[in-house]
Amino acid sequence: MLPENQRQILQEIVTAGRANRAANMTESTGIRVLLIGLGAIDKMMAVEFLTGELGADLLRVDLGAIVSKFIGETEKNLARVFEAAEASHSILFLDEADALFGKRSEVKDSHDRFANIEVRYLLASIEEYKGIVILATSHKENIDEAFLRRCRLVGDFC
Fold it and tell me: I need a labelling partner for 72 at 20 to 30 A (CA). Which of 7, 16, 49, 133 fits?
Protein backbone atom coordinates (compact mmCIF):
# COMPACT_ATOMS: atom_id res chain seq x y z
CA MET A 1 0.00 0.00 0.00
CA LEU A 2 1.42 3.30 -1.11
CA PRO A 3 0.42 6.80 -0.07
CA GLU A 4 -1.79 8.63 -2.57
CA ASN A 5 0.96 10.86 -3.99
CA GLN A 6 3.15 7.83 -4.71
CA ARG A 7 0.26 5.97 -6.36
CA GLN A 8 -0.35 9.03 -8.53
CA ILE A 9 3.29 9.03 -9.66
CA LEU A 10 3.08 5.37 -10.66
CA GLN A 11 -0.23 5.98 -12.44
CA GLU A 12 1.33 8.85 -14.42
CA ILE A 13 4.09 6.48 -15.50
CA VAL A 14 1.53 3.86 -16.55
CA THR A 15 -0.45 6.44 -18.54
CA ALA A 16 2.68 7.70 -20.30
CA GLY A 17 3.83 4.13 -20.89
CA ARG A 18 0.53 3.12 -22.47
CA ALA A 19 0.66 6.12 -24.79
CA ASN A 20 4.26 5.25 -25.66
CA ARG A 21 3.42 1.60 -26.38
CA ALA A 22 0.40 2.63 -28.47
CA ALA A 23 2.71 4.63 -30.71
CA ASN A 24 4.84 2.65 -33.09
CA MET A 25 8.32 2.10 -31.59
CA THR A 26 9.78 4.03 -34.53
CA GLU A 27 7.60 7.04 -33.72
CA SER A 28 8.08 6.93 -29.97
CA THR A 29 10.34 9.35 -28.21
CA GLY A 30 10.83 7.00 -25.30
CA ILE A 31 10.15 7.60 -21.64
CA ARG A 32 12.81 8.13 -19.03
CA VAL A 33 11.69 7.76 -15.44
CA LEU A 34 13.67 8.44 -12.28
CA LEU A 35 12.46 6.87 -9.03
CA ILE A 36 14.08 8.42 -5.98
CA GLY A 37 14.21 7.19 -2.43
CA LEU A 38 12.48 3.83 -2.56
CA GLY A 39 13.88 0.96 -0.55
CA ALA A 40 14.98 -2.18 -2.41
CA ILE A 41 11.70 -4.05 -1.90
CA ASP A 42 9.57 -0.99 -2.70
CA LYS A 43 11.58 -0.34 -5.88
CA MET A 44 11.02 -3.84 -7.16
CA MET A 45 7.34 -3.74 -6.22
CA ALA A 46 6.93 -0.44 -8.08
CA VAL A 47 8.78 -1.75 -11.15
CA GLU A 48 6.82 -5.02 -11.12
CA PHE A 49 3.58 -3.04 -10.83
CA LEU A 50 4.59 -0.94 -13.85
CA THR A 51 5.58 -3.92 -15.99
CA GLY A 52 2.36 -5.72 -15.05
CA GLU A 53 0.18 -2.72 -15.85
CA LEU A 54 1.97 -2.18 -19.16
CA GLY A 55 2.14 -5.86 -20.10
CA ALA A 56 5.85 -5.58 -20.73
CA ASP A 57 8.87 -7.67 -19.92
CA LEU A 58 11.51 -6.29 -17.60
CA LEU A 59 15.19 -6.16 -18.44
CA ARG A 60 16.98 -5.46 -15.17
CA VAL A 61 20.54 -4.31 -15.65
CA ASP A 62 23.18 -5.67 -13.32
CA LEU A 63 25.62 -2.78 -13.08
CA GLY A 64 28.36 -5.10 -11.85
CA ALA A 65 28.22 -6.99 -15.13
CA ILE A 66 28.07 -3.81 -17.24
CA VAL A 67 30.73 -1.54 -15.79
CA SER A 68 34.26 -2.38 -16.82
CA LYS A 69 37.61 -0.97 -15.81
CA PHE A 70 38.75 -1.25 -19.42
CA ILE A 71 38.28 1.81 -21.61
CA GLY A 72 35.35 1.47 -23.98
CA GLU A 73 34.04 -1.82 -22.55
CA THR A 74 31.30 -0.23 -20.46
CA GLU A 75 29.94 1.49 -23.56
CA LYS A 76 30.01 -1.78 -25.53
CA ASN A 77 28.20 -3.58 -22.73
CA LEU A 78 25.57 -0.85 -22.54
CA ALA A 79 25.07 -0.93 -26.31
CA ARG A 80 24.26 -4.64 -26.06
CA VAL A 81 21.80 -3.97 -23.23
CA PHE A 82 19.98 -1.24 -25.16
CA GLU A 83 19.88 -3.42 -28.30
CA ALA A 84 18.42 -6.35 -26.36
CA ALA A 85 15.84 -4.12 -24.66
CA GLU A 86 14.77 -2.55 -27.95
CA ALA A 87 14.54 -5.91 -29.73
CA SER A 88 12.33 -7.34 -26.97
CA HIS A 89 10.37 -4.11 -26.31
CA SER A 90 11.26 -4.51 -22.64
CA ILE A 91 11.21 -1.95 -19.90
CA LEU A 92 14.82 -1.27 -19.02
CA PHE A 93 15.50 -0.98 -15.28
CA LEU A 94 18.75 0.44 -13.90
CA ASP A 95 18.91 0.30 -10.12
CA GLU A 96 21.45 2.36 -8.16
CA ALA A 97 21.60 4.64 -11.19
CA ASP A 98 23.77 7.19 -9.43
CA ALA A 99 26.68 4.73 -9.72
CA LEU A 100 26.42 4.84 -13.50
CA PHE A 101 24.90 8.26 -14.11
CA GLY A 102 27.08 10.21 -11.70
CA LYS A 103 28.00 13.84 -12.11
CA ARG A 104 30.71 14.60 -14.61
CA SER A 105 33.86 16.00 -13.16
CA GLU A 106 36.42 18.53 -14.23
CA VAL A 107 38.96 16.81 -16.45
CA LYS A 108 42.25 16.59 -14.62
CA ASP A 109 43.64 13.45 -16.22
CA SER A 110 42.79 10.76 -18.76
CA HIS A 111 40.70 8.83 -16.22
CA ASP A 112 38.36 11.81 -15.83
CA ARG A 113 38.16 12.25 -19.59
CA PHE A 114 37.15 8.63 -20.15
CA ALA A 115 34.66 8.71 -17.27
CA ASN A 116 33.04 11.77 -18.83
CA ILE A 117 32.93 10.00 -22.20
CA GLU A 118 30.96 7.16 -20.55
CA VAL A 119 28.45 9.65 -19.17
CA ARG A 120 28.06 11.34 -22.58
CA TYR A 121 27.52 7.92 -24.18
CA LEU A 122 24.85 7.08 -21.61
CA LEU A 123 23.09 10.38 -22.21
CA ALA A 124 22.91 9.66 -25.93
CA SER A 125 21.81 6.04 -25.43
CA ILE A 126 19.04 6.91 -23.02
CA GLU A 127 17.81 9.68 -25.27
CA GLU A 128 17.74 7.44 -28.35
CA TYR A 129 16.00 4.49 -26.67
CA LYS A 130 12.39 4.33 -27.87
CA GLY A 131 11.05 2.34 -24.94
CA ILE A 132 10.77 2.95 -21.22
CA VAL A 133 13.88 3.33 -19.06
CA ILE A 134 13.45 3.36 -15.29
CA LEU A 135 16.35 4.63 -13.22
CA ALA A 136 16.28 4.24 -9.46
CA THR A 137 18.46 5.89 -6.87
CA SER A 138 18.53 6.80 -3.24
CA HIS A 139 20.94 9.66 -3.94
CA LYS A 140 19.44 12.16 -6.38
CA GLU A 141 22.17 14.65 -5.52
CA ASN A 142 24.73 12.34 -7.17
CA ILE A 143 22.91 12.17 -10.53
CA ASP A 144 24.30 14.32 -13.33
CA GLU A 145 21.99 17.28 -14.06
CA ALA A 146 21.89 16.36 -17.75
CA PHE A 147 20.20 13.05 -16.85
CA LEU A 148 17.70 14.78 -14.62
CA ARG A 149 16.73 17.11 -17.49
CA ARG A 150 16.14 14.12 -19.75
CA CYS A 151 13.85 12.32 -17.33
CA ARG A 152 10.26 12.84 -18.37
CA LEU A 153 8.88 11.69 -15.03
CA VAL A 154 10.52 11.93 -11.64
CA GLY A 155 8.98 10.09 -8.71
CA ASP A 156 10.35 11.39 -5.44
CA PHE A 157 9.40 8.89 -2.75
CA CYS A 158 11.48 10.47 0.03
Answer: 133
